[in-house]
Amino acid sequence: xxxxxxxxxxxxxxxxxxxxxALERPLFLNLFSPPSISGxxxxxxxxxxxxxxxxxxxxxxxxxPMTYNGNLGNPQQNIGYQNNKFGLYIYAEVDYVEYAGDMVxxxxxxxxYVLLPINVKDYEASKWTKIFELLNQKHLIPIIQLWDLxxxxxxxxxxxxxxxxxxxPWPTKNRYISVYNEVNDDRFWRGKADPIAYAEILSATIDxxxxxxxNFFMLNGAFNASARSGPGYIDEEEFxxxxxxAVPGIxxxxxxxxxxPYPQPEYRGSPYSSGRDSIKAYEWELxxxxxxxxxxxxxxxxxxTGWAHKEGEDENTKYFSxxxxxxxxxxxxxxxxxxxxxxxxxxxxxIKYPAPNxxxxxLDKDEKPYPQYKVLQEIEKIPGxxxxxxxxxxxxx
Length: 397
Fold this sequence. Notes:
- This protein has helices at residues 2-20, 94-104, 125-138, 154-166, 195-212, 236-246, 281-293, 322-337, 371-378; strands at residues 27-28, 36-37, 67-68, 87-89, 112-119, 140-147, 175-179, 216-220, 257-259, 300-302, 343-346, 389-391.
- The chain has a single domain (2-391), classed as Glycosidases (TIM Barrel, Alpha-Beta Barrel), CATH 3.20.20.
- The protein has 9 helices and 12 strands.
- Residues 1-55 have low confidence and may be disordered.
- The N and C termini lie far apart (75 Å).
């Protein structure tokens, strides 16, 4: 009887996982590794994907160069300017930008960060120009996460996305780009994780963006650090070694390191835990980079992290209460991330997410903040002083 019950439980779990793969970022239980969030970050309400012909974007020229803020305050050594580390994972919606600004730039803060995913086939200039203009107004530094590269058109899409993103009115000199997402997970890489292909694409993307504008600041796509090799996953250490074998020195081409240090297992880990399954997983990654590739202490950008709360449209009692999650966030920022001078930005996942995976959301379905939003809003911050744009050159093409 016990064996039958166990078998039926496993089957039920597998069926649940299969059904949820079609969701944007479903919770997937892998029997061989800790769970992870997966899917495509397509929460943007009005995604207008366009496949443009080659050469439609040209490198912009300017009658006069950009003028940037020269008062960089008391600089954080690894990034070169006084830095407000607070950030949030959002989507290209005006209300999300405003909510993010009200949180990350509160209580003395200025020039915090937002993580924004962008489809490399989405060249809707009016939408993205509006969002970037609002980022300027709200003093928010975007970290752009690329996604949804098409294999047969990848060279064209890499080039076009570089030109398109360069054409937008960036608020700061540094133009942060994270090259895709959790690529050691099959569901994030064309159905089959491929370290050789990703290494080649990462290298080509870095080269393409740097040719267009050397101010692009290139980050890897953050990995699923907690996943071990098994169905659907490749262990990160194994993945990195295969990447470097395919493209020797690939990690030395990066300007910084993107990380997803989630509190595992089941997003229920203690904020005081350490190791690859914790909110300090970036330390384990830094050790790998130093040991295998002689890459030492790159600036760290936490582009996803966080706990799930049980509250949502449907209660999920395996998660902590919203009050506990808020307390954990307060501990994590005050005691772990803010004092760590290796970290540049922390952008928890996520501003708002649809059910059934709304347990990570900072806002509920009516856009009322959960306690974690208010707790982070209340933490005292420093005003960031990046080299932001004072005067924009006049385009001459």
